[in-house]
Amino acid sequence: MALPDFNLLITLDAVLAEGSVAGAARRLQLSPSAMSRALARLRETTGDPLLVRAGRGLVPTPRANELREQVHQLVQDAQIVLRPTTPPNLKELERTFTIRAREGFAENFAPALLKRIAKEAPKVRLCFQQKGSKESTALRDGAADLETGVIGHTTHPELRAQALFHDRFIAVSRNKTNRYAKASHIALTRHGALNQQIDEALATPRKIAITVSTFSAALALARETDLIATVPERQTGNLRLGLYSYHLPFPAPTITISLIWHPRMDADPAHRWLRAVFLETCKPTG
To answer: One fold for both 7-82 and 91-286?
Structure first.
């Protein structure tokens, strides 16, 4: 079954609103002859004359009167659907955004994010979820709105990403006099490449006392033992309170933390606003 010409709805709306061919032609900026042809097509499509002669003018048929409000609403709805997106009314925006991030991100950046959001969009809520792996199916499935992390070979190529900040690794311990090369260390299971970089820079393997899976676990152990943890500086700022932090005795490995999202959210006005908030809040200060 062939689809009808939906442009006829606009013509019909003008004809029913004006009650004359000439008036409808002026409204749609068409010639009277073009409008007459369009009316003929409408009559053929609807099976109704729609407007009939009454003296010197035209009057609507019962079918035309029946259609007037419905057609007008359809045209208005279509205009709304096809209208370019506009910035959201942030003061009235009610939405919960889910963000997947590694440990330390919420602890360090959420306070500033919440302060900014409370000022601009007080009805918006953030839901942080622990990012246990680099698999980003949650973004593709719509279960998460944003992720933060390091872009790698496992990041799906369809995803969008923008750098939030660069981070470097530092040494952390409770003992200020610990010598990095000779001390016992806490290793991280998810950072094999980092462990290799450190051992190559030291030209000798470190003494690993324990291996853990998270930065927060490594810092908790460093707080209660004489072990040294090697962690990213910015992302663990608040987690390192009360501990001694110092530069590595060799060029520090660096990483880039990015904001990641699915392309279907590119043009969503509220999502675009939230991405801008993240980028401005997490940018280096100085």
So the answer is: no
Residues whose CB falls within 8 Å of the CB of residue 190, separated by 6 or more in sequence, listed in order? 213
Fold of 91-286: D-Maltodextrin-Binding Protein; domain 2 (3.40.190)
Half-sphere exposure of 52 (CA within 13 A, CB side): 8
Residue 124: strand pairing partners? 95
- 3-state SS class at 216: helix
User: Does domain 7-82 fall into CATH 1.10.10.10?
Assistant: yes
Instruction: Write the CB contacts of 46 (distance below 8 Å, at least 6 apart in sequence).
Output: 12, 63, 67
Among 100, 104, 99, 101, CA closest to 231: 104
pLDDT in tens, 16-41: 888 888 888 888 888 988 888 988 99
Higher pLDDT, 258 or 104: 258
Q: What is the three-class DSSP state of 143? A: coil
Instruction: Write down the domain spans for the chain.
Output: 7-82, 91-286
| Sequence-distant contacts of 4-8: CB under 8 A, at least 24 apart | 4/45, 5/41, 5/45, 6/78, 8/38, 8/41, 8/42, 8/45
Tell me the pTM: 0.71
Q: Give dist(CA 149, CA 193) in Å, integer.
A: 16
Q: Which residues pair with 53 in a beta bridge?
A: 58
138-179 residue pLDDT tens: 888 888 999 998 887 666 778 899 999 999 999 999 988 888
